[in-house]
Amino acid sequence: MQFSIKAQSPEKIPAGCLVLGAHLPGDAGGALARAAQSADRAAGGALRRALAQGDLSPKAGSTLLLHGVPGIAAKRVLIVSLGERREYGVAAFRDAIRGAAGALKGIGAKDAALLVADFAVAGRGLPWAVRNAVLGMREAFYRFDQLKTQKKPPAPALGALALALATGPVTLQAQAALKEAVATADGVDLARTLGNLPPNVCTPSYLADEARKLARQFKLGVEVLERRDMERLGMGALLSVTAGSRQPPKLIVLRYDGAAKSKKPRAPQLALVGKGITFDTGGISLKPGAEMDEMKFDMSGAGSVLGALRALAGMRAHVNVVGIIPTCENMPGGAATRPGDIVTTLSGQTVEILNTDAEGRLILCDALTYSERFSPEAVVDIATLTGACVIALGHVASGLFANDQGLADAIRAAGDDAWDRVWQMPLWEDYQEQLRSNFADMANIGGRPAGSVTAACYLARFTKKLKWAHLDVAGTAWKSGREKGSTGRPVPLLVRLALRRSGRK
User: Fold this and answer.
1) How far is residue 160 CA from its own chain's centroid?
2) What 8-state DSSP symbol labels residue 247?
3) Is 250 a catalytic residue?
């Protein structure tokens, strides 16, 4: 789908469908948003009369389709309910965009124009509306059916969507927002597709190949460490997780250097460390069989790092970012790590592995130590780390832990801006006692109480030299049930965070 920004009176836009907004209830059955009122005047009040019939539900996202409206150049007019004006906010905006996308899917229009200013949320600004309208549309039109031999008939293709501004010139801020949104949507799509691929396809080697493709496409720096490299470095924790698998582990390093060449030093402003367990059986601490297929999503942290770097490179963001992805499988077998084994990490600290299903923190701790060599200004790891975080926060917010409050505040602000929200959890020293081991420097689990917190506390032992934050996305990286599939979160958050660190708001 091609996106553009157009400054033109709505009634003059020659599109297959013109998308307008209306707040309900209102006078005479509805209150058209400001830009839509111009179209209504050109139509001799036809839009208000249609609303007065009461065929449009007040629920945000409901739609009413009109054909051949006099005085309107577009073939169809789609009126989208924005709900009550006094209650209109981000949630209603997202419902309205989803509703518009659902209607556009069904009508067969090859192109459409959306009066984006009508959908803007007070206090958020037009660039925010542009970004989130594009992301919402791309999310709605995403499909993953490349592995089906009998595909459903393709939905009518919406080839182009113009984000129409009824008055004034197209601003540089709006153009920049559109460029950012399209690149971010490309990154989200990449993360979703990698997550949706089956584990016999999306292996550690496959992820490494995807990183190399991105490097070739966008002229990024790339390095892939093999098992022998990890052995030489002393990554005993990471190697313990992959011991039972026939798939070779990889440590992927992907660098995007977009900051001005005059910037000194050339160290990354941000390091992103993504958990890349391409399938997690739990190892010897075997998971229950029910829904184990969803453990292909355990590489979602890795997918989000690749997606974020793809987005930043695609928009040529003025920031330096390094992505570090430890990736392997966690499988049972004769060579697999056992509960009770003790391993030595890259940092030199020893870990007693009490549960082999707490493997994400084992690969992350070595990757976090490895990130120190790049001297990043800040490090954020992203991981589908604990079921306990799902119990705590459900599927709405990702868990946030940080050893630096300034970084935590920046992540919260970026998440709010992208509507990819997080909730900060405690990282208090009091919880460290749960990781005590009689035989090693620490255990890899701290029992059932505060499971997501003790997992973060474990990682904190490897980040004392870093300004670091941890995102537990176990509840937000994918959906189960009828809508099963990757969400691509938290790519929008990571992109906004990186852009903010570059000085762009």
Assistant:
1) 24
2) S
3) no
- Our answer to whether residue 287 is catalytic in this structure is yes
DSSP E strands, 197-238: 221-225
Interatomic CA distance for residues 22 and 350, integer angstroms: 62
pLDDT the model gives residue 155:
59
Encode pLDDT of 258-278 as tens digits.
998 765 457 899 999 999 999
pLDDT at 236 over 50: yes
Q: How many CB atoms lie within 10 A of CB 312?
A: 30
CA–CA separation, 274 and 295 (whole Å): 16
Cβ proximity of 473 and 396 under 8 Å: no
| Nearest CA among 209, 237, 238 for reference residue 222 | 209
pLDDT of res. 29: 45
Catalytic residue among 41, 85, 287, 479: 287
Cα–Cα distances in angstroms (integers) from residue 40 to residues 45, 116, 120, 163, in the given order = 5, 16, 19, 19
| pLDDT for position 247 | 98
C-beta of residue 8 within 8 angstroms of C-beta of residue 163: no
Please, how many CA atoms are within 13 Å of residue 163, restricted to the half-sphere of its CB? 33
Amino acid at 84: E
Q: Cβ contacts of residue 102 below 8 Å, gap of 6+?
A: 61, 63, 140
Q: Which among 94, 361, 412, 501 is annotated as catalytic?
A: 361
Give CA–CA dist 74/12, Å, rounded. Answer: 8
Q: Give tens-digit pLDDT for 364-414.
A: 999 999 999 999 999 999 999 999 999 999 999 999 999 999 999 999 999
Among residues 274, 254, 271, the alpha carbon closest in space to that of 212 is found at 254
Look-up: residue for tokens 């000085």?
503
The four Cα atoms 437, 439, 440, 446 give a dihedral, to 10 degrees, of: -20
Whether cis (ω within 30° of 0) applies to the bond prior to 265 is: yes
Is residue 301 within 8 Å of 470, Cβ to Cβ? no
The model carries a pTM of 0.96
